[in-house]
Automatic annotation (TrEMBL):
Name assigned to this protein: Phytoene synthase-like protein
Coiled coil: none
GO process annotations (BP): terpenoid biosynthetic process
InterPro entries for the chain: HSQ_synthase_HpnC, Isoprenoid_synthase_dom_sf, Squ/phyt_synthse, Trans_IPPS_bact-type, Trans_IPPS_HH
Species this chain originates from: Ramlibacter tataouinensis (strain ATCC BAA-407 / DSM 14655 / LMG 21543 / TTB310)
GO molecular function: geranylgeranyl diphosphate synthase activity; squalene synthase [NAD(P)H] activity
Length: 290
């Protein structure tokens, strides 16, 4: 799970581009941003890294959740993750961070473990959007909270961008995720294009596979467009960073299209060659929401 996911991280980078200590992030917020990073990164690693069986991953996530709830209620926490809950305690105290986004993230991590163990996918787009609501949107909401942006329109736009980035990550990583037992293509969409949801090994060779991915790319792009005004609501340099993240996600969609919508066999990525295009788009986006 990669909440890319996150509002301020390009898709598919496993939190590596989360804006920890970024020069675009005000110094006063860097400790809190770092605390959010380590919370999400550690929980993601529990759910996704190493060779532990699913039962152990779920037990560890339950213990992680118990420490979060203890922290929120000012009770003692265990000594298993001091690098997470020490800084997070300070951030929650100083910035009055809400609890719900953290528990939503954990529920998404737990869902990933359970569905991977069961070989289960997502019934339809609504089912997948519910996952994105918990796996991607919470970090965007927490970042808005840190920047003092609370109005409903801004939150809705942030949710659109976060969800779009998560969807982009899914369509970028189709081949990678399938090899790991992760199925994010909605079963209703698979059936609509004649693919068998129960036979993922057959998807890549199906004559309608690329048309299916093209439809999913269009969905992600339309979702992103619904949130294009949010960078204008985030103050200072962070607004420019968010413009770059939005345009980076859209650029990935361009690359998926350029390779014929085949991400079953090759994962598109950004490189230094994309920098001039991204810079031009970010500057253009700085003039007005597109």
């Amino acid at each position: 799970m990669r909440p890319s996911s996150t509002a301020l991280a390009p898709p598919g980078d496993h939190y590596e581009n989360f804006p920890v200590a970024s020069w675009l992030c005000p110094a006063s917020l860097r400790p809190a941003v770092a605390a959010l990073y380590w919370f999400a990164r550690t929980a993601d690693d529990i759910a996704d890294e190493g060779d532990a069986p699913a039962e152990q991953r779920l037990a560890d996530l339950a213990a992680f959740r118990a420490d979060l709830l203890a922290l929120a209620h000012r009770s003692p926490v265990s000594d298993r993750w001091p690098q997470v809950f020490g800084p997070l305690a300070a951030a929650m105290e100083r910035h009055r961070l809400p609890l719900a986004p953290f528990t939503d993230l954990l529920s998404a991590f737990e869902q990933d473990v359970v569905r991977t163990r069961e070989g289960a996918g997502y019934a339809d787009r609504a089912d997948l959007l519910d996952y994105c609501r918990r796996s991607a949107n919470p970090v965007g909401r927490l970042m808005l909270h840190l920047y003092g942006v609370h109005d409903a329109q801004a939150v809705a736009e942030s949710d659109c961008v976060c969800t779009a980035l998560q969807l982009i990550n899914f369509w970028q990583d189709l081949g990678v995720d399938l090899r790991r037992g992760r199925r994010y293509l909605p079963e209703a969409d698979l059936r609509a294009h004649g693919l068998d949801p129960a036979a993922p090994a057959s998807w890549r060779a199906h004559p309608n596979a690329r048309r299916l991915v093209a439809d999913e790319v269009a969905w992600a792009r339309a979702t992103m467009r619904q949130g294009l005004a949010i960078p204008h609501r985030v103050p200072g340099r962070a607004g420019w960073e968010l413009r770059a993240v939005v345009q980076g996600g859209l650029r990935i969609l361009d690359k998926i299209e350029a390779q014929g919508f085949d991400t079953f066999s090759r994962r598109p990525t950004l490189s230094a060659r994309d920098a001039p295009v991204l810079l031009w788009r970010v500057l253009r986006m700085g003039q007005s929401a597109r």
